[in-house]
Amino acid sequence: MRLFYVYILKCSDASFYIGVTNNLERRLLEHNSNKNIYTYTFSRRPNELVWFEQFTTSDEAIKKEKQLKGWSRKKKEALINENWNNLVNLSKNYTQNKKSSED
Question: Which stretches of the chain are assigned E, i.e. beta strand?
Fold first, then answer.
C-alpha cells in the first residue's frame, strides 16, 4: 500500500511550510538541499520537520494540506505542540478568538 504524508516544516526564519509527499525522508532531504533556489524553503534552511500525518490516498492528504494552509499560525502551533484544548478553542470561532486576543 502506498502512503502519503502531509507535513509541516519549521524554517530557520520561524515560518511554517506545509506540503504533501509520498516519500517523507526524500522530501525532507530535498527541502534542505541546495538544488532548487526558487523554492520557498531554499533561503530558509535549515528546515525542521515538526509535524506529519500519513494517509492512504492522495486525495485525503491533499484535503488535509489545504485545510492546514487555511489555519492561523496559533492553530498550527497548537497542532504541532499537541495542545488539544487550545486547538479546540481556536477552532470554535476565529473571529471571536482574534477579538479576544486583541483585548
Answer: 4-10, 16-21, 48-55
Residues 11 and 36 reside in one and the same domain: yes
Global pTM reads 0.86
Nearest Cα neighbor of 68 from 19, 33, 3, 1 is 19
Question: What would the grid cell of residue 87 be?
Answer: 486547538
The string of pLDDT tens digits covering residues 18-41 is 999 999 999 999 999 878 889 999
CATH number for position 42? 3.40.1440.10
Quote the CA–CA distance of 36 and 83 in Å, as a whole number: 35
The answer on pLDDT for 102 being more than 70 is no
